[in-house]
């Protein structure tokens, strides 16, 4: 059976947007296996090399506050192209860097530039679709995006066996330039001039922060940000839980981490299949409740079982449901308004990165001798998220 031209275009668009939205995994997970070599090569301390990771995360968070408002004023395509061209250039500069301090600075700029992919992939989808169609498209987008956290560390680990750490950043540069060309040739402008914000850039930024005056919007971005906090609680604690507490080998943990990443991708796709039968709001309430109950089960197991296979099963269920939550809440938030999609997406991304960044060290401070801190953090994040979500009246924000 022949594939229709429209279907081919939709698959191509999903692939491009899914790839550009994966800036985080590409910028972070890909070079994690190279951190020890970079510490030796640059004659520096581990803490300074780790600071390059934090610098990129900060750049990814702040960059969304720049790309979002700019896209509402100038359209989606130009900020995306500029962002990935700069991403490619900076990645090349990193490959030729011989100073850890220059590395940290360039990683911050790399994050700023790459943030355009995260924020504008959501905005472009919102320009093109709405309602259940948007949910189904986000489901496909999230499924593509979910592949990268799984394969990035594997690719990075494979490369570091044959090339120096600089080769990873050369690869990132190539990816940046290829995406620049793909955006140029493969994505049309989705925000026509008549729908753009008028006035100077300062006004565009002001319009973005005006969204924070709407209590419904604030509750929703906090609810989805807290769900990300639950995910980052798992990410930051998982290696300690499975390798130190359960004595799992590094290779087995890597396999488990990849399987859970696939679970997130599968979960991300499920809401799209259910969108024609159940509303996004009903699905979200159900999944938040079921995730909370599963997390409580994980917490209780730390007192009664401490069984590796039970923990693996519960964690897989939790992260799969996280995938569903992210697709659903993103669709609900981006459906709130037909205008300022870039600004809405920017604040959504900031909430996710900020709360995720807070929860990662917080779980570590709670202790790594057991999985109780991880389970407690997930229960707390999802519990508060559910409470916030249930207090929202789902009426569109007025344009």
TrEMBL record:
Domain of life: Bacteria
Membrane topology, as annotated: Multi-pass membrane protein
GO CC, any one term: plasma membrane
Any GO molecular function: xenobiotic transmembrane transporter activity
Keywords associated with the record: Cell membrane, Membrane, Transmembrane, Transmembrane helix, Transport
Signal peptide range in chain numbering: none
InterPro entries: Efflux_drug-R_Bcr/CmlA, MFS, MFS_dom, MFS_trans_sf, Sugar_transporter_CS
Keyword Lyase part of the UniProt annotation: no
Subcellular location: Cell membrane
UniProt record similarity statement: Belongs to the major facilitator superfamily. Bcr/CmlA family.
Protein name (database record): Bcr/CflA family efflux transporter
């Amino acid at each position: 059976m022949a594939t229709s031209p429209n279907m081919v275009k939709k698959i191509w668009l999903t692939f491009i947007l899914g790839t550009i939205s994966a800036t985080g995994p590409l910028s972070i997970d890909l070079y994690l296996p190279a951190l020890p070599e970079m510490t030796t090569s640059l004659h520096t301390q581990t803490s300074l090399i780790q600071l390059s990771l934090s610098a990129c995360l900060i750049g990814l968070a702040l960059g969304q506050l720049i790309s979002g408002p700019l896209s509402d004023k100038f359209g989606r395509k130009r900020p995306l192209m500029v962002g990935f061209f700069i991403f490619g250039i900076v990645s090349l500069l990193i490959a030729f860097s011989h100073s850890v301090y220059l590395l940290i600075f360039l990683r911050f700029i790399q994050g700023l530039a790459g943030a355009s992919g995260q924020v504008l992939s959501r905005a472009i989808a919102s320009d093109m679709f709405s309602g259940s169609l948007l949910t189904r498209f986000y489901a496909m987008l999230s499924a593509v995006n979910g592949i990268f956290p799984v394969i990035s560390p594997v690719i990075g680990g494979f490369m570091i066996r044959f090339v120096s750490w600089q080769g990873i950043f050369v690869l990132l540069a190539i990816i940046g330039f290829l995406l620049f060309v793909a955006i140029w040739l493969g994505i049309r402008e989705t925000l026509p001039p008549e729908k753009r914000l008028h006035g100077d850039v300062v006004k565009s930024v002001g319009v973005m922060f005006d969204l924070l005056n709407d209590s419904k919007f604030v509750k929703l971005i906090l609810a989805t940000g807290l769900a990300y906090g639950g995910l980052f609680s798992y990410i930051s604690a998982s290696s300690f839980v499975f390798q130190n507490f359960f004595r799992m080998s590094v290779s087995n943990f890597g396999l488990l981490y990849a399987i859970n990443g696939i679970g997130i991708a599968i979960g991300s796709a499920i809401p799209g299949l259910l969108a024609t039968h159940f509303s996004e709001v009903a699905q979200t309430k159900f999944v938040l409740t079921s995730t909370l109950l599963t997390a409580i089960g994980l917490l209780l197991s730390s007192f009664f079982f401490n069984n590796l296979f039970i923990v693996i099963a519960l964690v897989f269920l939790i992260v799969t449901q996280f995938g569903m939550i992210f697709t659903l809440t993103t669709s609900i938030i981006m459906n709130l308004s037909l205008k300022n999609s870039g600004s809405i997406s920017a604040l959504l991304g900031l909430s996710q990165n900020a709360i995720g960044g807070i929860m990662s060290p917080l779980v570590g401070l709670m202790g790594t001798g057991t999985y109780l801190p991880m389970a407690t953090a997930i229960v707390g994040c999802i519990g508060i998220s559910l409470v916030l979500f249930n207090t929202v009246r789902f009426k569109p924000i007025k344009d």
